[in-house]
Amino acid sequence: MRILITNDDGINAPGLEVLHDIATEIAGPGGEVWTVAPAFEQSGVGHCISYSRPMMIARLGDRRYAAEGSPADCVLAGLYDVLEGARPDLVLSGVNRGNNAAENTLYSGTIGGALEAALQGIPAIALSQFMGPQTADLADTFQASRQHGAATVRAILEADLWQPEADYRIFYNVNFPPVPGAKVKGTRVAPQGFRRETSFSAEPQISPSGRRFLWIKGGPQHTPTAPGTDAAVNLDGYISVTPMRADLTAHDVLADLAARLA
Which pTM was predicted? Predict the structure, then answer.
């Protein structure tokens, strides 16, 4: 199996090393793992692509490249330049430092990389490690994803639910819970949740030179979502697996809207 990996935390991020180990186990002895990751951190860029400017790409080692772009850029670079048209069988994005559950999903560059792969017709999985008090003092804060990552990816592959005939095909969002590996309770298929009464915001700050800047600030990450949704099962010690697609149409209101506008 040929696997392309990327992330949004950057080429030197520890989570990318974890993902490489996961991908190597999945690819098998005769497989290939190719890395194309951002040269610098790209957290929060979503599905951004560098449409209006070129980007540099550098070979750092055998099957290892860094690109000055977003995770979606890296997937495109991998498909159309690095791999020279030899399409991968699977794209893995992550392992992100921090959860990409609930509304975080909409901002995530980790998700953006997997989404771009799905738009290119390639099976893709995004993986993220929820952090919290139980992971803070671990020697390896990625312990849960390191221990359970390969089995989770393998289970998704064995389920074989990709809908390749669909215009917007399925990709998967996986979040590992904020607990040590031994305390992971199992896996739950869960819809995307929503953290109520919290959101991203902007906070002003005056620099030492007197200039006014704004910092984008995230909300509390341990605010529970509705029971059974992604962040809720993560906080209960379970790995969440959420099937997603890029179609943003609100299908549930199409008929009602058409009737009202008729």
Answer: 0.96
